[in-house]
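Hi L., both proteins are below.
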Amino acid sequence: MNRVLLGTAASRAGVDCVCGLSFRADPRSYVFMIRTISILFLLSSLALSAKTLEDVITQAREFVGPNEKIESIDTLLYEGVLVPENGAEERRISLLLKKPASQRLEITQGESRITMVVNDMEGFMMQENLVNGQKGFSPLPTDQVRRFKANAAENLYFFKFPSSVRVRSKYLGEQEFRGQPVDAVRFIHSGGVQFFRYFDPETGELLGTETDTGTINTEEGAIQVDGLRFSDKVLSFEGDELAHTITFDKIEVNPEVPEGAFTFPE
C-alpha cells in the first residue's frame, strides 16, 4: 500500500520518476505502442491460421490413409450399382483405372452393355448385345477422351500429381459448399478440364467435387481397403437436383488387369 501511495503522491507532486517509472511520458507513445502490439498480434495470428495448398492436400491424403500406401497404387477397380433418380432401370457399373490416366468404364443394363475406354493415346466406345454377342465400335470424341483421362488421374493420384501428368493446382481458400465451410482446391488438366474439390477444413475429408460442366458429386459412407479409406456412395447432382446415386459393393486396390483391357480393338 505504501508503494501505491508513494507513486500517487509523487505523480501529484510533479516528480518525474519514482523507482525508475516515468509519470510524465507522452500519452501518444502509449497509443503507438498499443497499435504496434495489435498489428504484430494480427500478423502472427494470420501466419498461424493461413493455410497453403500443401497443407490442404497433405491433410486430405492423410484422411485417406498412409502416404506410402497411396503412392503404391497403380490400378483401382470399382464395381457397384447406379440408380437413376428418375425411376429408370438401375445399371451395373465397373470402373477400372490404371496409371497414369487409363480408364475402362462398363455400364450394363438389361441385355446390353456399353464400354468406354481411354488410354494414353485414344479412346473408343463399344456397344454389345449380351444375348447374341453382336458388337459395334466407335471412337470417342477428343473432348470426351480428355475428360476421361482427367477423371482417371483424379481418382488415381489422390490430389497430388507428378509433373508428368501436367495438372495445375490452386488453393482457393475457405468457401461454403452446400451449407458447409470447406477448403476449396481447383485442379486444371490438359485441355482445360477442371475439377473443384471441397474438403472438410477440420479433417481433410473430401465432401464433394464439382466439374467445369456443372455436375456436382458428393460422397458418403466409407469402405476400408488395404488400409485406405474410400467412399462407398456417390450422389451426382445436376444443379440442385439429384440425378443418380452410385453405391459401390466392391473396391480393389491393384487388381490384376486383363490383357488388352485398354487396347483399341482391331
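That was the first. Here is the second:
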Amino acid sequence: MLLATPRFWYQPRPGPLAWLLRPLGWLYGLAAGIHRARIRPWQPPLPVVSVGNLTLGGTGKTPLVIALARELAGRGWRPAVLSRGYGSGRREPLRVEPRMAAALVGDEALELVRGLPGLPVWIGSDRVASARRALEAGADLLLLDDGLQHWPLTRDCDISVLDGERRLGNGLLFPAGPLRERPAALARADLLVLTGVSSAAPEPLAEPEPLAQAAAPPPRLPWPAGRPWFAVAARLELPPGLRQRPLLAFCGIGLPEKFFAALRQDGCRLVACEAFPDHHPYARSDVERLLTLARAQHNATLVTTGKDWQRLTAVLAPHERAAVVPVGLRLDPAAVARLADGVQAALLRRGWGRRG
C-alpha cells in the first residue's frame, strides 16, 4: 500500500531519486514478466471486458466501471463485475451486498455494489472462480475491475484508463515511477480512456469531442494511430449550498491533492485539508480528530470522497453522519455511451453479438 504518491513520479524529467530507484523498477518488471509467463489463462464461455490502469494511483477507474456497467446493462447485457476486493484478503468468491462492512469486502467493492443496485459484484483474488460463480448466476458479460494486469482470464476487450493530466508521469516502472508495466504495454489495450474532472458541466478534456475513432494518437502517449481512444470528463456532485460553507476536506486515496484541487476549482472554500494513506482504515480516533479540527475552523463541514465514505460509516456515530458529506463523480453520459459503442465493436470483432 502506498502511503502517498511520490511527487517525483510526475515530474517532467526523472530526478536523482528516480534514477537511483530505476534498477528496482527493472527487477519489478522482470518479476511481473515471469509471473505472466507461468499462467495459462482460461477462456470463459462469455465475453470478458477489463478496465484497468497502467499506472499506480487514482485515475477515476471505479466510477468508470460503474458508469460502463450501467450503460451495458441498459443495452440488454447482464454484466457481473469481478473485483479483487482490495483490503478484504479474500481468495474465494463472495457476492457483495450493500450492507456489508468495508473491513470485510473492501471500500472499492462497496462503492461498486452501492453504485450498481441490482447488478452483481463479486470479490476474491481467484477471479476464475468468481467468473464461474457469476456464470452460474446468469451473467452474460464479465467486467473486470482493475483487470489490465490480470492474466488468469482471457479478455476480449481491454480498456486502459489514464489520468488525462498526469498520463504516464516520468515514464518509469515502480518504484522509480508510477508504471506497473513499460509504456509500450499501453498499446496492448483495445481502448484508451483519458479521465479528468471539470468544474462546469461535463466536457471532453483537450479534444473537441469524445472520440470514437481517432485519426491520430493522443499527445505524449505510445498509442497506435487509428485505434479508438476517448476523453471522458467528470464533474463533482456537490449538495446544494456546499460551496457557501467553510469546508475541511479529507481523504485516503492514491492522489489526495487531485480531490482537493477539484473542490477548489468547483468554487468550494477549503479552510483545511487532511490526507490519509491510500485505503486508510478509519478509526474512532480519526473521526474525533477530524471533528475537533472542523470545530476549530469555524464549524467547518467535513467533505470526503465516496470511496472514503465506505470506510467511514462503520466508525461514525448516527448523529455524526450529517457532519460528513461524501462527494461523488458524475461522468459525461455521452462519452460513456461512445465508450460502450467501442466495447461492443471490440466484442463483435471477437465473435460476440451486439446488444442495444
